[in-house]
Specification:
Blueprint lengths: L1 H17 L2 H15 L6 H7 L10 H11 L10 H16 L9 H14 L10 H15 L5 H14 L5 H9 L9 H15 L5 E8 L6 E9 L2 E5 L7 E6 L5 E5 L8 E5 L4 E5 L3 H20 L4 H94 L7 H27 L4 H26 L6 H31 L7 H23 L18 E2 L2 E2 L4 H18 L1
Helix pairs in contact: 1-5, 2-5, 6-9, 6-10, 7-10, 13-16, 14-17
Protein name: Switch-associated protein 70
Keywords: Cell membrane, Cell projection, Coiled coil, Cytoplasm, DNA-binding, Membrane, Nucleus, Phosphoprotein
Pfam families: EF-hand_SWAP70_N, PH
């Protein structure tokens, strides 16, 4: 009943939308009750369409009445063709195209009924391109023409770009225009429409003239047979006006071929529970077609399956629904993938920005580091220049004020030469110390040893200090230079600590540096031995303690402050003795 109700609603919908229900709703209801053999309920009808503001005369208000008082009372004992013709009469005049068509009004009516059968179960009603193709193929096959798939594909592409499908009236215009039946006359097209109408709407599975043997008189009479899903009706002629009888089919029926007899050929027998029917076809091909058609119908009845065209329509709908669901699922997945991709793009963009920011920070830090390094280099260069200038100035002053020390000049030159050579050795040692931080502890031990030796040298230099006389102003100036040098040494020590961190990268050169250290230590020891055999005014310059140093005209002082004082006293004593 649900399927029947849906089929009825489609035809009623056309009539319903074509009428002005405020004036003609009663007409539609009366006509529906008449053609559907439903008892009239004048009270409910008048109540529904009473002329006041509360009466549900809107589209939504009419459906409850239609379902309750008409459709729910339909039993199926009505003429479907007459029902469709009534609905067609109410809507055709308003909607049918005024332009001339290649099909008659009767053919247009049949196309309209076929549309209701093939249309989708949603409103407003449309027929989708797949069902249009199915219908046009059936018509083309019925006309005996070839199907133009390429032509329909072009039409389908043009249709899909504008809308989902066609309305009933657009389908009538399409078939009536002859676009897919070129070269066919009106009669051929009409016969094709009638054949498809009989199959799809009237459930005619097969029809044609055959001879039937009578049960009483046993004579053979030509009849027009019409095969439907559960019955075979036979008429006097194909106009179906004079019906002679029915052969009721069910799952217990069977059909079998018979040998030729009584001068009749192409015989077959239809066996039912109460009767059997002998029938003669016009030729063997027709005989085989009828046997196969009847047997297929019986098999469907046994299986409880619908007619082939209805089953095929249901399968096509299910396939479209499945494809639609798959398409929706694919769209959903695509949206999810797109969303995930957008999120990933945002994450990548965030990471990219973070990397750019980190790179910018690293570049800024590197720039600052390089700037700091350049500043330190400039500062040390400046300090060295200042030290050189101070040294030169002191050398000039000492040269002017210390003429009495000319006797030591020769020895000083020798010591300077030794100092230069010793400085080269110390430079090698210093370079080795800069190349490898890991040997710092070894150098420290060496420095401790050298410090011990330095103590011995200081004792030796105490005797030399007695020969040195310096004015109080010179002493104060040396003290100031010592303080300046001490501060420079502290800055240098800080820089040295920074450089010590960078020397850790030179671990792989440990063995080579060790050899250099050994060589430098040997050289240092050799020069220390040489210095120990000479009486000089300076002591060996060596990596020593962090105690404050004095500055002389030859560079950092070789003696401590106590040694200088002792030297000064000794020098003054000698000067007094000479005077």
């Amino acid at each position: 009943m649900v399927g029947l109700k849906e089929e009825l609603l489609k035809s009623i919908w056309h009539a319903f939308t074509a009428l002005d229900l405020d004036r003609s709703g009663k007409v539609l209801s009366h006509n529906l009750c008449t053609v559907l053999n439903v008892p009239h309920d004048p009270v409910a009808l008048e109540e529904h369409f009473r002329d006041d503001d509360e009466g549900p005369v809107s589209n939504q208000g009419y459906m409850p009445y239609l379902n309750k008082f008409i459709l729910e009372k339909v039993q199926g004992n009505f003429d479907k063709v007459e029902f469709n013709r009534m609905c067609w009469t109410l809507c055709a005049k308003k909607n049918l195209s005024k332009s001339p068509l290649l099909i008659s009004d009767e053919d247009a009516f049949k196309v309209w009924v076929i549309f209701n059968f093939l249309s989708e179960d949603k409103y407003p009603l449309i027929i989708v391109p797949e069902e249009i193709e199915y219908l046009l193929k059936k018509l083309t096959e019925a006309m005996g023409a070839g199907w133009q798939q390429e032509q329909f594909d072009h039409y389908k592409v043009a249709l899909n770009t504008s809308r989902e499908g066609l309305s009933a009236w657009e389908l009538i215009d399409l078939i009536g225009s002859g676009q897919f039946s070129k070269g066919m006359d009106r009669q051929t097209v009409s016969m094709a429409i009638n054949e498809v109408f009989n199959e799809l709407i009237l459930d005619v599975l097969k029809q044609g003239y055959m001879l039937k043997k009578g049960h009483k008189r046993k004579n053979w009479t030509e009849r027009w047979f019409v095969l439907k899903p559960n019955i075979i009706s036979y008429y006097v002629s194909e106009d179906l006006k004079d019906k002679k009888g029915d052969i009721i089919l069910d799952g217990n029926c069977c059909v079998e071929a018979l040998p030729d007899k009584d001068g009749k050929k192409c015989l077959f027998l239809i066996k039912c529970l109460d009767k059997s029917f002998e029938i003669s076809a016009s030729d063997k091909k027709k005989k085989q077609e009828w046997i196969q058609a009847i047997q297929t119908t019986v098999n469907l009845l046994r299986a409880g399956s619908p007619p082939p065209h209805k089953e095929a329509r249901q399968k096509r709908k299910e396939l479209r629904q499945k494809l639609l669901a798959e398409h929706e699922e694919l769209e959903r997945q695509m949206k999810e993938l797109q969303t995930a991709n957008e999120n990933k793009q945002k994450e990548l963009e965030t990471v990219r920005k973070q990397l750019e920011a980190a790179a910018a920070r690293a570049a800024e830090e590197e720039k600052k580091r390089l700037q700091t390094q350049v500043e330190l280099q400039d500062r040390f260069s400046l300090e060295l220049e200042r030290e050189k200038m101070v040294r030169q100035k002191m050398e000039e002053q000492v040269a002017q004020k210390s003429s009495e020390l000319e006797q030591y000049l020769q020895r000083v030159r020798e010591l300077e030469e030794m100092y230069k050579q010793l400085q080269e050795a110390l430079e090698d040692e210093k370079q080795a110390r800069q190349d490898e931080e890991t040997v710092r502890k070894l150098q420290a031990r060496l420095l401790e040893e050298e410090s011990a030796k330095r103590a011995e040298l200081e004792k030796w230099h105490l005797q030399q200090q007695q020969t040195i006389q310096m004015t109080e102003a010179e002493k104060q100036e040396l003290e100031n230079q010592r303080m300046i040098k001490e501060r420079a040494l502290q800055v240098a020590m800080q820089q040295l600590e920074q450089l010590e961190l960078e020397r850790k990268e030179a671990l792989e050169q440990y063995e080579e540096v060790k050899k250099k250290l050994e060589t430098a230590a040997n050289n240092t020891k050799s020069w220390k031995d040489k210095v120990a055999h000479h009486e000089g005014l300076i002591r060996l310059i060596e990596p020593g303690s962090k105690n404050p140093h004095l500055i002389t005209n030859w560079g950092p002082a070789a003696f401590t402050e106590a040694e200088l004082e002792q030297r000064q006293k000794s020098w003054k004593g000698k000067k007094a003795t000479s005077e």
